Amino acid sequence: MLQVRIEEPLPAQYTTPEIPVAYPDPALIEQAMKVLASAKRPLVIVGKGAAYARSERETNDLIGRSNLPFLATPMGKGVVSDLSPNFIGPARSMALQQADVVLLLGARLNWILHFGRSPRFNADVKVIQIDICPEELHNSVKSSVAIQSDLKPATKMLLEAIARSGFKFNDASDWWRDLRRKCESNRKGVQAMSMDVSTPLNYYAVFHHVQEMLPKDCIIVSEGANTMDIGRSMLLNRLPRHRLDAGTFGTMGVGLGFAIAAALYCRHHEPTKRVICVEGDSAFGFSGMELETIYRYKLPIVILVVNNSGIYGGVDEQLYNEIKDDSEPTTTIPPTILSTVTRYEKMMELFGKRGHLCKSIPELQKSLKECLADTQGPTMINVVISPTADRKPQTFAWLTESKL
Amino acid sequence: MLQVRIEEPLPAQYTTPEIPVAYPDPALIEQAMKVLASAKRPLVIVGKGAAYARSERETNDLIGRSNLPFLATPMGKGVVSDLSPNFIGPARSMALQQADVVLLLGARLNWILHFGRSPRFNADVKVIQIDICPEELHNSVKSSVAIQSDLKPATKMLLEAIARSGFKFNDASDWWRDLRRKCESNRKGVQAMSMDVSTPLNYYAVFHHVQEMLPKDCIIVSEGANTMDIGRSMLLNRLPRHRLDAGTFGTMGVGLGFAIAAALYCRHHEPTKRVICVEGDSAFGFSGMELETIYRYKLPIVILVVNNSGIYGGVDEQLYNEIKDDSEPTTTIPPTILSTVTRYEKMMELFGKRGHLCKSIPELQKSLKECLADTQGPTMINVVISPTADRKPQTFAWLTESKL
Amino acid sequence: MLQVRIEEPLPAQYTTPEIPVAYPDPALIEQAMKVLASAKRPLVIVGKGAAYARSERETNDLIGRSNLPFLATPMGKGVVSDLSPNFIGPARSMALQQADVVLLLGARLNWILHFGRSPRFNADVKVIQIDICPEELHNSVKSSVAIQSDLKPATKMLLEAIARSGFKFNDASDWWRDLRRKCESNRKGVQAMSMDVSTPLNYYAVFHHVQEMLPKDCIIVSEGANTMDIGRSMLLNRLPRHRLDAGTFGTMGVGLGFAIAAALYCRHHEPTKRVICVEGDSAFGFSGMELETIYRYKLPIVILVVNNSGIYGGVDEQLYNEIKDDSEPTTTIPPTILSTVTRYEKMMELFGKRGHLCKSIPELQKSLKECLADTQGPTMINVVISPTADRKPQTFAWLTESKL
Amino acid sequence: MLQVRIEEPLPAQYTTPEIPVAYPDPALIEQAMKVLASAKRPLVIVGKGAAYARSERETNDLIGRSNLPFLATPMGKGVVSDLSPNFIGPARSMALQQADVVLLLGARLNWILHFGRSPRFNADVKVIQIDICPEELHNSVKSSVAIQSDLKPATKMLLEAIARSGFKFNDASDWWRDLRRKCESNRKGVQAMSMDVSTPLNYYAVFHHVQEMLPKDCIIVSEGANTMDIGRSMLLNRLPRHRLDAGTFGTMGVGLGFAIAAALYCRHHEPTKRVICVEGDSAFGFSGMELETIYRYKLPIVILVVNNSGIYGGVDEQLYNEIKDDSEPTTTIPPTILSTVTRYEKMMELFGKRGHLCKSIPELQKSLKECLADTQGPTMINVVISPTADRKPQTFAWLTESKL
After folding, report:
1. Dihedral angle at the C-alpha atoms of A35, A39, A43, A46, nearest 10 degrees?
2. Is the CB of C142 inside 8 Å of chain B's CB atoms?
3. Which of A365, C12, C105, D302 has the fewest CB atoms within 10 Å distance of its CB?
């Protein structure tokens, strides 16, 4: 019978000793140092390899001591805090295009990084690549320096090389000036949208005000299209391994399962830490019934559905015409949007609880406060935004296309 | 772009002509006739192969003219109506055990039919097997007559042999008398439970009263454990291919997808026909979010969740003890059951509709009437039954065990 | 230990009863009859499906009574004897191109039959297809009549329809006259080459004189390129299932293994029947070491290597130039061919036996006579032919190309 | 057409840069040094991982400076010369059983090393493991120190640690004395057999006299059962990557293909180096026809078939009885063995050449001399040994059993 509980301890030969890790070739670290030192427009990209290698201390020290600007991949976020003065996420497109040296710390040149190729990257960019997997080395573009190593020792040794050489990227350089200007101007655009609390709401206003209230150490789970993409830049990570999303292959339906796993981990290891699950309405539909599992296990997950009342990216003109002749099942939007939005928060009533429907920022603030205060089980907010809400205007068409 | 609509007709070479079917060896039909004619306690088992072969007319004529008693496999139900005087489902266990000749019409001796072996079958039973798949012939037990053929021509030719021979199984035989007595006594037991409308309700009372109201030609989709098993005997099929359930391998999570497919078929081909989806509460959890799909496509499916407030077969004593120490997430039952039952019907409120919570037969009758009258989209009934409701007492332990 | 011998008989439940076969729809047989009767230029193609179905008696009767011309696929050969007056193999190309009705008896329209398409077939040809596998019906081209059935009962029923209808294709028809003329003219061409016994020998001379001496009931195994292709038309089969070759996918290396299997079968079931294994020199190289197996098991297989001293189809001009500069390992031919031919027959000396090297027809006749008289184990003839020997001139380039 | 020759150079993006390798954790190297220094009965095992990593210089320096005794796995042979005074192969069983510390340099504890377990290993043995593959670390037995690294830098760093520490294992230690005594006594036993040149010959006599004549830098390819096992200890390797055999999974049939590959490599890169292919008679049968390929490509491979006239390990008593009644095809041995041995060397006559049949040591010496002098193409020696020849007596039954 498979349900019997085994009390005997696992025999020693089946236990797992700590895994020794691979170190880098010291000579290649020196080469990497030289290439870095020669850079006029250097850029560090921190990938989830750095998070998995638990190299956060080394990575933070490296960024701090070198004064290099950095970006993070979706699940590489938080290895170095999004609040670091060296984080130049708002200038991402410019940084990728103009950098002359890119240091990849456990990040890979796949579609998320536009394969490292022109026109998204400088055609002459020199790549310094540190990766645990030899098959990834020189992948997509040839690296100037390719290093096979676990990230933790490699980052530490590169940090030591930086310390020895006295290298510190000039804070007054043209590159830092340009990046900061670009960050500033993009932040202003985002801020304008964030402060636009008119209803129906837009993505930026929602995420901005959610961000203000989230516990600084919470685990953020996310999936969706615009919800995941915009939320990634608006919801901050200060800690490594605190963001779980649809990942390299964009797999939908994983959000609630990830949240359950994270919450069970927290229950046993960090009972005061919270899990926030930010879902697009379409993404939520893949496995929303897991709410019952969450309830039965009494996991205090806050589920936030960002609801633009449309499956697959809101409405566009063609779709709107189809709506008029009532033939399109991927949207539920009739003439008056807010009267007929899908009320996902009602799912809480399956368990005799109440969810939150929020159409305005004050409602959202009040509801999120209540949800965060409730540690007895799941809570849920259905925040209604405009079906025509979208990302901030993109100067680069490929940015959007590359996600398809 | 994958979303473009193609208006050109399919080139002729890619169209599918009608598939010619395989016929049986006429000599084997004669042999089958002889074995049938020699039977003292014959039994016909109609499988889903007969339904897929669309051999209902031939099968009904065969049963009618031969006066043979028959059973049906889960999805073989309805090829001959459950209301046929020859249907001896209530005497299933006795019929399998005592039959001396079994005629398999597209039914296979897998676990659903206890592999055709003793003690569930007579060890000396002679099997007449008609199947399209040669690998299935003589499978599990050796057949006395094995016939490779599509079911439709084989049944027709066997019917003709019966007609030629004048064979008609004696209605006054001991076998018919025993089967009828057993059916009668089992029906009385079921009837007693069906009429027990005390609350919390039991399975039989629910299904009996649902059955009274269902359209005679509706398509029944079902999945679950007890819900599917008991519902199979209580909800009648008069038409072939009108029952879709978890199938040979007992796959859970298929119910709502099956119902959507059936309803889309009906929309285009039989717009007045209704689809009823009967789900255990655990089964519903696998893909309950498909309710949103059903709503968006405005499919008039009636979803009936038979809710015993427990995942995996209600509660037993051990489980009840675990409930008391509040540690068991597979049930939500506290001291007062009805105050905390999972309110699946609330999912209708996601779309501004109301579902039905029913705790008594009158409530169920009223709600089902409303649901059947509503053809604009999905309707949903959450009928609460006792967590300790179970099947009628089984004389044969293996009957239950074999389902695991 | 895997080498223990089990003496107990196999339990009854693991024995295999005779497999009942599928029959055809009688109405489709009538349709086939009508289409056949309407044909002006009918053609039967007998495939290995007919051999596997053991329908030789029915097929012979059908050909005999209907007076239809027929072809056979490589392993369909012998179901009806190659010596039948209705066999029109020498007119194959013309028959395929001009036939208006083609009856496929277990033959499939794959690459061996040029996919049934123009220009190798008449674009308006009507196909009558009898096949056991429904997925093959209407494959490549749509059939006028497609019949799912085992070949044996289907052929028998078609024969009965022919008998009932009195159908007999007119021996004095234009079609028979044209086919016979074509056969005659092609046979003359072949005969001229067969009679050309100048050395180095050509394929046709070798096969013609081998054919004269082979036991009428021998099993012919063959693989190679020209050796298999030309041998197929020159070595006659009078019995079904007496030709084993590289098959539908042209797999090389199977010849000696097939010969071993056939010889072991004969040892136990038909001890006077002989197995002849006709190999191209390249084909023999794949698994020639199996000669040791044959010797150890004392199997009286006659192995005939038809040796054109070149791997992959002899030499052409380009190759010959490469030979001159001594750089081409796929041929061993220096200025004087016969002094350096690979002496495969020497492999017999591994076992203290002598093989036969034959360069002329008298040598070949003497050697083959000795080999056929020796029943103690393998015998081997290495017959040397011209490196430039090839097929008779082809009017249709595709005939050759389609083999690639 | 696949046979066209492409003259354009490969585009740069498809070229392969040098692969950077992983380095070890320096702290683990220190730990390894400490464990080594504490050993009373240390043992190094050099695996093919060291050969693939091209770490021969580092490995030789390490053995030389540390004075540690070592063994090699089959394809790890030659990384350090078999003639090294530190090689203790003749004392293999004792060394494995009694070592208290084992240093694995690219060797894995699979079946070839008896899974590292008692009774073949000391149950308390401490393992120091260096391997490139983290999944192999702690495999089968837990290592005291497990190091993930490419072998070359890890060996170099361990060597440096040895140099720094001044560690040198005491040549006068009990362990070295015991190992040398055991080597000496086993060498005497082997020598006795090697010097027994009575006919029919035994394995040791054959290999001893072959070894005396082989070029010191030749590549040895080998497969078979006793032929491969005994040949492994008798045929010496002085250079890394100069032994190719049936490998970890004991795959038969690879010998001639390996020899062809090695000879083509030598033709292009080391034209004076020779390839010797040592085959058991059974092994040769798998792909002996490749001799034709070798001849056509004019590769000067010396093929030595060590022929005990029996498939699968010669004859035993049971087999001998079966031979008498003439029923056993896996041996060809009649009363007088030498008159009927399989004459594999006759295969040379396929090409107008002569092979060598040798029954005595003088014949073998003369033949091998001739073969080594011939560089125009393949040469072949069929050396006949006694069907009852076997390994030297084994004190450990499992040694033999573990190979099955």
Report:
1. 20
2. yes
3. C12
* CA distance to partner chain D, nearest, from residue A41 (Å): 25
Nearest-Cα distance to chain A for D18, in Å, is 9
Q: Name the minimum distance, in Å, from the CA of B83 to any CA of chain C.
A: 33
D130 touches chain A (CB under 8 A): no
CB of D107 within 8 A of CB of D49?
A: yes
Tokens of C404: 């690639």
* Closest Cβ opposite residue C332 in set D289, D296, D339: D296
* Chains B and C touching, counted as 3 or more CB pairs less than 8 Å apart: yes
Q: Which value, in Å, is the radius of gyration of the alpha carbons in chain A?
A: 23
Which helix (H) or strand (E) segment holds residue D258: the answer is helix D255-269
Mutate to test the interface with C, among B23, B31, B142, B152 (most CBs of C within 10 A): B23
Please tell me the distance in Å from D242's CA to the nearest CA on chain A: 27
Identify all chain A residues contacting D24, using CB atoms and an 8 Å cutoff.
20, 22-23
Q: Could you tell me where the DSSP H helices lie in C239-280?
A: 255-269
Yes or no, beta carbons of B329 and A298 under 8 Å apart? yes
Q: Which chains have 3 or more CB–CB distances shorter than 8 Å to chain A?
A: B, D
Who contacts C345 (Cβ-Cβ below 8 Å, separation ≥6)?
C305, C354, C355, C356, C357, C380, C381, C382
Neighbours of C, requiring at least 3 CB pairs below 8 Å, are B, D
B196-391: which CATH number, 3.40.190.290, 3.40.1280.10, 2.30.30.220, 3.40.50.970?
Answer: 3.40.50.970
Question: Sign (positive/negative) of CA torsion C155, C156, C159, C164?
Answer: negative
Nearest chain C residue to D299 by CA: give it: C329
User: What are the tokens at D359?
Assistant: 């029954």
Domain C196-401, what fold? Rossmann fold (3.40.50)
Q: Provide CB contacts within 8 A for C47, sequence distance 6+.
A: C72, C73, C75, C76, C104, C105, C106, C107, C108
Q: What is the secondary structure of B4-36 as a DSSP string?
A: PPP-SPPPGGGS-PPPP--B--HHHHHHHHHHH
Please tell me the distance in Å from D388's CA to the nearest CA on chain C.
19
Which chain A residues have a beta carbon less than 8 Å from that of B287?
A: 289
Q: Flag if A23 and D20 touch (Cβ within 8 Å).
A: no
Mutate to test the interface with D, among C1, C292, C348, C404 (most CBs of D within 10 A): C292
Phi-psi region of D172 (alpha: psi -120 to 50; beta: other; left: phi over 0): alpha
Pick the CATH number of A26-180 from 3.40.50.1820, 3.40.50.1220, 3.40.250.10, 3.30.465.60: 3.40.50.1220
Reported ipTM: 0.89
Nearest to A364 by CA among A144, A164, A205, A168: A205
Tell me the residues of chain D between 248 and 287 that have a Cβ less than 8 Å away from chain C.
Answer: 284-287
Q: Which residues of C touch B28 (CB under 8 A)?
A: 20
Q: Where exactly are the structural domains of chain B?
A: 26-180, 196-391
- pLDDT digit string (tens) for chain B, length 404 residues: 456 677 888 777 677 788 899 999 999 999 999 999 999 999 999 999 999 999 999 999 999 999 999 999 999 999 999 999 999 999 999 999 999 999 999 999 999 999 999 999 999 999 999 999 999 999 999 999 999 999 999 999 999 999 999 999 999 999 999 999 999 999 999 999 999 999 999 999 999 999 999 999 999 999 999 999 999 999 999 999 999 999 999 999 999 999 999 999 999 999 999 999 999 999 999 999 999 999 999 999 999 999 998 765 444 445 444 444 444 565 554 434 445 789 999 999 999 999 999 999 999 999 999 999 999 999 999 999 998 887 665 554 443 433 33
